[in-house]
């Protein structure tokens, strides 16, 4: 998605219509490594309305990617809008810290992109790679839906599917769905806090420890239900400024 967020900081400062959203940042990251004509291979769709800000549209067009802004959500709608509020917190010594907890809510939308939205733009069905920001259950529904749409469009080659879990759904009650969803994607890419939440752990306020990061990662291998046996799977685990842990499942075969 493309989201315009209103940010509220503990010191009273506010920022309005800050550009964000998983779709924006995944394209931006890919664009940094796509030079010249290869940038046009990066295709993405934004669901918006007729009030989508021209300055935002021009900024995104300036990235020289294959951008489609579908303005079908109404005359008064810009796009998905959000409100992010930061609150002060305390450190382990009881001292005040600038950023503690935060809350987030949608003001309008969310106008998510699902496989059915790609049918109006056949070239998007021919993409070699797809990035999903979805719940485990939505992943289990949408990945097969995408593959089915491609199959009925005569596309036989399977795409690379990257899945980033939707943060509010990263909780222990979703663990079984998580394991099933991992099995239908090629790359599962949470951050360390999201993965820990799936196993009922809250490590957001703990001092960083490699074993805290590696333990839930090892656990998902021990309990995972790997169905895509025909292909290897990569699983980068992002840890903010501490970079990432990359692990892999490899199909073992016999000659």
Fold blueprint:
Blueprint: E1 3-8, E2 14-20, H1 22-32, E3 43-48, H2 54-61, E4 66-71, E5 80-86, E6 89-90, E7 96-97, E8 102-108, H3 122-125, E9 129-134, H4 136-152, E10 160-165, H5 175-182, E11 187-188, H6 192-198, H7 210-223, E12 233-238, E13 244-249
Parallel strand pairs: 1-5, 3-4, 9-10, 10-11
Antiparallel strand pairs: 1-2, 5-8, 6-7, 12-13
For this entry, give a set of tags.
255 residues, disordered C terminus, 3-stranded parallel β-sheet, 2 domains, 27% strand, alpha/beta
Q: Give the number of DSSP strands.
A: 13
Domains counted in the coordinates: how many? Answer: 2
Main sheet attributes: strand count, strand direction, barrel closure: 4 strands, mixed
Quaternary structure annotation: single chain
Summed up, the helix count is: 7
Strand content: 25-35%
Order of helices and strands: EEHEHEEEEEHEHEHEHHEE
**N→C terminal distance:** 45 Å
Shape estimate: globular
Name the poorly predicted regions.
223-230, 250-255
Average of the residue pLDDT scores: 83
What percent of residues adopt helix (DSSP H or I)? 25-40%
Walk across the major sheet and give the strand order: 2-1-5-8
Based on helices, strands and strand pairing, what is the structural class?
Answer: alpha/beta
InterPro entries: Ribokinase-like (IPR029056)
Structure, described:
- Helix content is 27%, strand content 27%.
- It is an alpha/beta fold and 255 residues long.
- The protein folds into two domains: 1-113, no CATH class; 114-226 and 241-248, no CATH class.
- Helix 4 (136-152) links the parallel strand 9 and strand 10.
- The protein has helices at residues 22-32, 54-61, 122-125, 136-152, 175-182, 192-198, 210-223, and strands at 3-8, 14-20, 43-48, 66-71, 80-86, 89-90, 96-97, 102-108, 129-134, 160-165, 187-188, 233-238, 244-249.
- Helix 4 packs parallel to helix 5 (175-182).
- The strands form five sheets. It has a four-stranded mixed beta sheet. Strands 9-10-11 form a three-stranded parallel beta sheet, sandwiched between helices. Strands 3-4 form a two-stranded parallel ribbon.
- The protein is built from seven helices and 13 strands.
- The chain starts with a strand and ends in a 6-residue tail after the last strand.
């Amino acid at each position: 998605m493309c989201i315009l967020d209103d940010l509220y900081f503990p010191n009273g400062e506010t920022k309005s219509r800050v550009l964000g959203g998983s779709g924006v940042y995944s394209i931006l990251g890919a664009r940094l490594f796509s030079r010249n004509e290869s940038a046009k291979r990066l295709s993405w769709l934004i669901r918006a309305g007729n009030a989508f800000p021209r300055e935002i549209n021009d900024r995104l067009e300036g990235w020289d990617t294959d951008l489609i802004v579908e303005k079908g959500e109404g005359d008064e709608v810009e796009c998905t809008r959000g409100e992010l509020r930061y609150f002060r917190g305390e450190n382990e010594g009881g001292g005040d810290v600038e950023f503690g907890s935060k809350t987030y809510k949608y003001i309008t939308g969310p106008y998510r992109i699902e496989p059915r939205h790609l049918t109006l733009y056949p070239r998007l069905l021919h993409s070699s790679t797809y990035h999903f920001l979805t719940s485990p259950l939505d992943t289990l529904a949408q990945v097969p839906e995408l593959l089915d749409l491609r199959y009925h469009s005569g596309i036989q080659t399977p795409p690379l599917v990257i899945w980033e879990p939707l943060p509010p759904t990263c909780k222990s009650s979703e663990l079984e769905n998580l394991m099933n969803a991992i099995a239908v994607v090629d790359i599962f890419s949470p951050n360390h806090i999201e993965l820990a939440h799936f196993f009922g752990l809250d490590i957001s306020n703990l001092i960083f420890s490699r074993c805290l990061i590696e333990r839930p990662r090892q656990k998902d291998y021990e309990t995972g239900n790997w169905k895509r046996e025909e292909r290897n799977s990569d699983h980068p685990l992002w840890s903010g400024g501490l970079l990432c842990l990359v692990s892999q499942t490899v199909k073992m075969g016999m000659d």
